[in-house]
Specification:
Structural class: alpha/beta
Number of domains: 1
Strand order of the largest sheet: 1-2-3-4-5-6-7-8
Distance between the termini: 26 Å
Shape: globular
Oligomer: single chain
CATH class: Alpha Beta
Radius of gyration: 16 Å
CATH superfamily: Aldolase class I
Number of helices: 9
CATH topology: TIM Barrel
């Protein structure tokens, strides 16, 4: 399935008191995809929140993905999942979710590029690109040069694969990320840390679109 990863918001966790309202504001501002991630909530809490998110996003047509939890995605009727390297294997998730689900995969190094099941994923998220406080990441940032190298490797294996970048991305560096080879940005704090989520999304989306247009000319 073709997925629009230009502005990919990740919402959830203790810092987001109303994920559904935040996600709706982000999409109104131009977010193209929303992921729900919460490493501490119970399964029932996750299903309830995911169901509320799905309902809030339905009128906008924006897809909802669940981080890691295929069971929650199925229970809430989400549009797919995002999987890390230690999560359920992509091939099993695809079998459970079906051919129409959106499945994304985190890519952190060259080995991940060569091992990625290209026929079973809909996009790759490369990173972390920069240092971030939004997630505990034991791996060092790949930086812009690492992003560029990994994006080239992914495109060499499958030219039409959407590649987004994640971690530490904001209005100040989003255009550099696009110039390095990403087709979109995945963000948490840049959208949801503080007020004015819709306005933040508008600014980020404009930056990303302008950078993508520059890359095409």
């Amino acid at each position: 399935m073709k997925v629009d990863i230009r502005l990919y918001g990740i919402v959830g966790g203790s810092g987001h008191n109303d994920p559904a309202a935040l996600a709706a504001a982000a999409v109104r501002g131009g977010a193209t995809l929303i992921q729900y991630r919460d490493k501490h909530a119970s399964t029932r809490q996750m299903i309830d929140t995911a169901t509320a998110l799905k309902s809030a996003l339905a009128r906008f047509g924006a897809p909802l993905l669940i981080n890691d939890r295929v069971d929650v995605a199925l229970a809430a009727g989400a549009d797919g999942v995002h999987l890390g390297q230690e999560d359920m294997p992509v091939e099993i998730a695809r079998r459970l979710l079906g051919p129409d689900a959106i499945i994304g995969l985190t890519i952190k190094n060259d080995l991940h590029v060569t091992q990625a099941p290209m026929d079973a994923i809909d996009y790759a998220a490369v990173g972390g690109v920069f240092v971030t406080t939004s997630k505990d990441n034991p791996d060092p940032p790949v930086g812009l040069s690492g992003l560029a190298r990994l994006a080239v490797g992914l495109k060499a294996r499958r030219g039409d694969l959407p590649v987004c970048a994640i971690a530490g991305i904001d209005e100040a560096n989003a255009s550099q990320v696009i110039e390095a080879g990403a087709g979109g940005v995945s963000v948490i704090s840049a959208l949801f840390a503080g007020a004015e989520t819709e306005a933040r999304a508008q600014r980020l989306r404009r930056i990303v679109d302008e950078a993508l247009n520059e890359e095409r000319t």
